[in-house]
Amino acid sequence: MAIDSGDARRFAAPAMEAFIARVLVANGLRPADAARVGTLMVEADLTGADAHGIFRLPQYVRRLQAKGMNPQPNITVSRRAPAVAVVEGDNGMGHLVMSQAGATAVEIARETGIAWVGARRSNHAGSGAVYATLPLPAGMIGIYTVVASANHMAPWGGSDSLLGTNPLAIAIPMGDADPVVLDMATTVVSYGTVKGHALLGQPMPEGWMVDRTTGEPLTDPKKSAEGVLLPIGGYKGSGLALVLGLLAGPLNRAAFGKDVVDFNADDATVTETGHVLIALDVSRFLDPAEFHADVARHLEDLRQSVRLPGVDRIRMPGEMRAQRRRDRVAHGVPLAPALMALLDRLAGEAGVAGLV
Q1: What is the number of structural domains in the chain?
Q2: Is 270 exposed, middle or buried (0-12, 13-18, 19+ CB in 10 A)?
Q3: Does residue 212 lie within any of the structural domains?
């Protein structure tokens, strides 16, 4: 979801990254760490995952100030087997933990062809695609999932919020062409999208949430605490969220189910977030150029297939993401006035220059 409006102003990515870094340094992060977080957060904005970019900065600052996150973590890596490692995040910002996980996954996959890297003692890290794409420059496929930082979905047939939006992101390299990137929540929309509607005062369409008591559609985003998000594909989405959560949570000795802390409502409690990043070296299967050409051929077959009435174009996963990134790199990221007001206030409280 793009959290902008008709009167949104556009800002250059480097200015946004520098602003985020200034605010985070003022709240205790080391300059290099703050810069890395800024880069990863703005990457979400550039690719259109606006609910997971700079929009999240006020929330991160609240958690840092409440001691819910460690501003200067000692992130370590434990190699468990030739192709397996666990990143211990020391309750650092999730962006830093997953940045280390990405570097570790690529390093291991260069040796073994595949890497499974779990992460624990972490925090919310933003857009899943940002981390699934970390192996792409090395010519590797990336697969990412995480236990979401709050439970907003019930098990199929239930009304208790015991499952998160637990996303799945997969990125496939295509050489010089745009990669294939699938990034989806296991709910119809992410909870960040709900928060974005609340910020802009926009109602939600029916089909996103239902009232946990009545089961009726819930369309007021400011009443989202009274509802649960609906899974994609009915019981299939609920089951997918469950198994992805088990892989990222209990397998990493991280939070899942009732143990998940709602970081939207609780700034101080350690979240114990768990993630998974898998890197797969394409060259272990075939020549990467041959793979890219074959995938490109199949994608074109899909694009050129017969369309249903009213459909103007068949799009592939990642197409809009790549187009949006090119536009925003060239013309800036649109930020709504309501979000700018929050960021201006944040700058004033941190005693740093605002975003210009």
Answers
A1: 1
A2: middle
A3: no
Phi, psi of 124 (to 5 degrees): -50, 135
In a domain, 303, yes or no: no
- Token digits for 306? 């017969």
Find, among 159, 144, 174, the residue nearest to 296 by Cα.
174
List all residues 6 or more positions away from 115 whose beta carbon is below 8 Å from its beta carbon.
83, 84, 85, 104, 105, 106, 107, 108, 109, 277, 278, 279
Question: Does residue 294 register a pLDDT over 60?
Answer: yes
pLDDT in tens, 138-156: 999 999 999 999 999 999 9
pLDDT digits (tens, 9 = 90+) for 197-253: 888 889 999 999 999 999 999 999 999 889 999 999 999 999 999 999 999 999 999
Q: Are strands 227-229 and 273-281 parallel, antiparallel or unpaired?
A: unpaired
CA distance linking residue 34 with residue 21, whole number of Å: 5
Q: Which two tokens stand for residue 101?
A: 């996980």
| Distance separating alpha carbons of residues 94 and 126, to the nearest angstrom | 8
Residue 47 phi, psi dihedral angles, 5° rounding: -95, 5
Contact 128, 140 (CB under 8 A): no
Over range 282-301, report the average pLDDT: 98
The string over 172-193, giving b where at least 16 C-beta atoms fall within 10 Å of a residue's C-beta and e elsewhere, is bbbeeebbbbbbbbbbbbbbbb
Question: Using one digit for the tens of pLDDT, what is the confidence trace for 26-72?
Answer: 999 999 999 999 999 999 999 999 999 999 999 999 999 999 999 99
What are residue 281's DSSP bridge partners? 140
User: What string of H, E and C letters represents the secondary structure of 35-79?
Assistant: HHHHHHHHHHHHCCCHHHCHHHHHHHHHHHHCCCCCCCCCCEEEE
Q: Which range of residues forms the domain containing residue 65?
A: 9-187+231-287+319-350
Flag whether 327 is in a domain: yes
Query: Quick one: pLDDT at residue 199?
Result: 81
Say how far apart CA 348 and CA 351 lie, in whole Å. Answer: 5
Kindly state whether residue 335 falls inside one of the protein's structural domains: yes
Q: What is the rounded CA–CA span in Å between residue 224 and residue 136?
A: 36
CATH assignment of the domain containing 66: 3.30.1370.60
Q: Residue count of the chain, please give it.
A: 356
